[in-house]
Amino acid sequence: MIGEIDIYGVLFPPLLIWVFVALLLSMAVRRGLSALGVYRFIWHRPLFDLCLLVMLTGLISLAANRYF
């Protein structure tokens, strides 16, 4: 596990960077799911979107800890 990420002298915790990357991925996945019409079968869309963000954040943190 790395301590902090230095971006032009500003230190950020890794989780903040991972959540930002997961948010960008989540936006792309949500757009794709919406275009395919999958949201017609989802009961509670905001809860589904939150779960998607949490799962993507977990996958990114797992990959970052394993491969970097």
Give descriptors for this structure:
single chain; 2 helices; 68 residues; mainly alpha
Textual characterization of the structure:
By secondary structure, the chain is mainly alpha-helical. It has a domain of 32 residues. It has two helices and two strands. The protein has a two-stranded antiparallel ribbon. Helix 1 packs across helix 2. The mean pLDDT is 93.
Q: What is the gyration radius calculated from CA atoms?
A: 15 Å
Instruction: Tell me the distance between the termini.
Output: 8 Å
Provide the β-strand percentage band: 5-15%
Q: Which secondary-structure class do the elements indicate?
A: mainly alpha
Spatial strand arrangement across the major sheet: 1-2
Average pLDDT level:
93
Tell how many strands the DSSP assignment holds.
2
Can you count the helices?
2
Q: What gross morphology would you assign? A: elongated
Order of helices and strands: EEHH
Largest sheet: 2 strands, antiparallel
Helix content: 55-70%
Unreliable sequence segments? none
